[in-house]
């Protein structure tokens, strides 16, 4: 009986040790293994979880040791909490719901940022944030966004539209070594410095004259041929006078009352 009791105690201790090892690898237990996360050698993956925010436990457990963070295929629109990952060098945010209202935190060491297949349309605003918040960035990818005018995002765009986009991005971010799917060449960077300021995309104002929504004119047509102040319909004012023009022709108004026998 004593041997069996000692055996059961050792077994429980072994299970506790195994649980501690799993916890040190970022896994709470077998039930959570598939739905939690994966961390190894500075790389933290939290892919395809349908998450809209970064879980607090990911931030508290891994913010200081993560150099590569993959949050692809979620529903992120807010990046709150990323500022805690102070050693982050690579950030993957592909296939989320990031739009023009996103606030990019300051990440001084970040070198790679991929935002493919999101909802970004305002290129100028995005590049301004990157300039101020990500000073070490050398790799950027925006494929699949309206802000990146190529055939993946806009069927009516061509190679010239995409090249103008590249010139403008490289003019704003001259330290980039790789943009979207191709490396930045010295000749392209030189041309971007020359023509980049003229490649800025002019966005239409929110309120425009004649702008329509669902067939309804939001701006009423204020033009009218009538005078600003019209008379009341009962206030008729006629005029009387003598015309200085007299018509004596054959088809004058008076001739229609004269018969041929009277001539």
Describe it for me?
Helix 4 (159-172) links the parallel strand 6 (139-141) and strand 7. By secondary structure, the protein is α/β, with parallel strands linked by helices. Mean pLDDT is 77; it is low at 13-36 and 207-213. The protein has a domain at 33-206: Leucine-rich repeat, LRR (right-handed beta-alpha superhelix) (Alpha-Beta Horseshoe), CATH 3.80.10.10. The radius of gyration is 37 Å and the shape is elongated. 25% of the residues lie in helices and 10% in strands. It has helices at 2-24, 56-62, 123-133, 159-172, 186-195, and strands at 38-40, 43-45, 68-70, 90-92, 112-114, 139-141, 178-179, 182-183, 212-213, 216-217. The strands form 2 sheets. An 8-stranded mixed β-sheet has the order 1-2-3-4-5-6-7-8, with no helix packed on it. The termini are far apart.
